[in-house]
From TrEMBL:
TM stretches of this protein: 41-58, 78-96, 102-121, 133-157, 163-186, 216-235, 247-267, 279-298, 310-330, 342-367, 387-408
Keyword Transport: yes
Keyword Transmembrane helix: yes
UniProt xrefs under Gene3D superfamilies: MFS general substrate transporter like domains
Role: Lysosomal dipeptide uniporter that selectively exports lysine, arginine or histidine-containing dipeptides with a net positive charge from the lysosome lumen into the cytosol. Could play a role in a specific type of protein O-glycosylation indirectly regulating macrophages migration and tissue invasion. Also essential for liver homeostasis.
Domain Major facilitator superfamily (MFS) profile: 11-412
Family named by the database record: Belongs to the major facilitator superfamily.
GO cellular component terms, A-Z: lysosomal membrane
Family annotation (Pfam families): MFS_1 (PF07690)
Entry-linked PANTHER family: MAJOR FACILITATOR SUPERFAMILY DOMAIN-CONTAINING PROTEIN 1 (PTHR23512)
Species the sequence originates in: Sulfuritalea hydrogenivorans sk43H
Name this polypeptide is given: Lysosomal dipeptide transporter MFSD1
Length: 423
């Protein structure tokens, strides 16, 4: 299809984007309610990190199966079932009387929303011109990232006004609504489907392709550092190390993801315009790595807190730069057969969630090693040394991700697998 798809495709894509928006909300929400979760369930940093990362555990495991399902069953069916499961999980999380049930609820949320992004990419791959894939992916992410912005300052406000439990019950009901909308409006996408009896052969083909893997490792480091911080530890870090209120700290998370949203749209467009994937990703991801040096330096700074203008500026710049890893999906699609686009993008997308799944609890565990036992209102208070240990781990992960980007194959924004086959 060309860039202007027929109305039915656009309507279904709109539903997929809305489901993706909710998935981003769930991904980031623990940052704004971290104190509430610690106080409600009487848990420490390591348990808090595990609860938040449960979403990423399930998302990680589900990415390759989701790619297979997107290429065989199609986006319509997986969005329907995903919405139902996510709705049940969000309501259970909101009503959970214990840490264990909250863990189960968060797990179901991760399982349900794990299909949204790949379903959206599959609709883009089948319904639009491949030369605009990165641009359109970025625009969809720009809209979807509103969910992460809502999980910042707006969630902090709603939590104070109505309570965090009520917010998640409402979000669960919205998931049910999107499930029914996907069943009604997302069209079947038979064109380009893989033979359901041959999906394993296709998956093996993607996994054996060496050009698939650099994007996976880049995502593990770069996205891992980004989501581990912005999705959980940013708010407690900013309140404890920089003396901010929870509302001000949460607004930084919103700014962080606002930058990420616009960066997702911007770098895809720049990449498509320049006809380059790797060069753009290297440049902007390098800026992201430098930002970690600033946060780390602040833990050694004798004067303590950075000026408010500086922290806001750093969040917007790092948000923009963090979006460099989003070019990995276009790169993965372009080094594999077009009919395997769902599997190809899902393999590199595993890294996006494996990184935070490892790093969120690991940061908490490291800080617990040197924690001096201080608590306020049921929330653990960490020292500059504790935060330095946690941020150093995130910095190392980001640097490793940047080095992996050096190994990504430059595709020139076209399917080089097709080009090789034609030769």
């Amino acid at each position: 299809m060309n860039a202007t798809a027929r109305p039915g495709v656009m309507l279904g894509l709109g539903v997929a984007i809305a489901a993706y928006l909710l998935s981003f909300f769930h991904r980031v929400a623990p940052a704004a309610i971290s104190g509430d979760l610690q106080a409600t369930f009487a848990i420490g940093g390591a348990q808090l990190g595990t609860l938040a990362a449960t979403y990423f555990y399930v998302y990680t495991v589900m990415q390759i199966p989701t790619g297979v399902l997107a290429d065989t069953l199609g986006p319509r069916r997986i969005l329907w079932w995903g919405g139902l499961v996510a709705g049940v999980g969000a309501i259970l999380f909101g009503l959970a009387p214990s840490f264990e049930l909250a863990f189960v609820g968060r797990t179901l949320v991760g399982l349900g929303v794990s299909v949204t992004f790949i379903a959206m990419l599959k609709l883009l791959a089948l319904g639009f011109d491949e030369r605009r894939f990165a641009t359109l992916t970025g625009l969809c992410m720009l809209i979807g990232n509103l969910g992460s912005i809502l999980a910042g300052a707006p969630l902090a406000w709603a939590t104070q006004a109505a309570g965090w439990r009520q917010v998640f019950v409402v979000v669960g009901l919205l998931s049910f609504g999107l499930a029914f909308a996907s069943r009604a409006w997302v069209i079947e996408t038979p064109a380009g489907k893989v033979d359901r009896t041959a999906w394993l052969t296709g998956l093996v083909s993607v996994l054996k392709n060496r050009a698939t893997w650099p994007g996976f490792f880049a995502n593990t480091g770069l996205s891992g550092a980004f989501f581990a911080f912005a999705g959980l530890w940013a708010v407690p870090y900013l309140t404890q190390m920089h003396g901010m209120t929870r509302a001000t700290a949460s607004s930084h998370v919103s700014i962080y993801f606002l930058g990420f949203a616009f960066g997702s749209a911007l770098w895809g467009r720049v990449s498509d315009a320049l006809g380059k994937r790797k060069a753009v990703a290297l440049a902007v991801s390098g800026l992201h790595v430098l930002g970690w040096g600033v946060w780390l330096w602040a833990t050694w700074r004798a004067a303590g807190a950075l000026p408010l203008a500086a922290t806001y500026a750093l969040c917007i710049v790092m948000g923009l730069a963090s979006a460099g890893f989003t070019l990995s999906w276009a790169s993965a699609k372009e080094v594999n057969p077009p009919q395997l686009s769902g599997m190809a993008t899902s393999v590199v997308n595993v890294g996006v969630f494996l990184g935070p799944a490892i790093l969120q609890p690991a940061v908490g565990w490291l800080m617990e090693r040197t924690w001096d036992g201080r608590m306020e209102a049921g929330v653990r208070i960490y020292s500059a040394t504790d935060w330095r240990n946690g941020l150093l781990l995130l910095t190392v992960a980001a640097v490793a991700g940047w080095f992996a980007t050096l190994l990504v194959r430059e595709t020139g924004c076209r399917n080089v697998w097709k080009a090789r086959e034609e030769k």
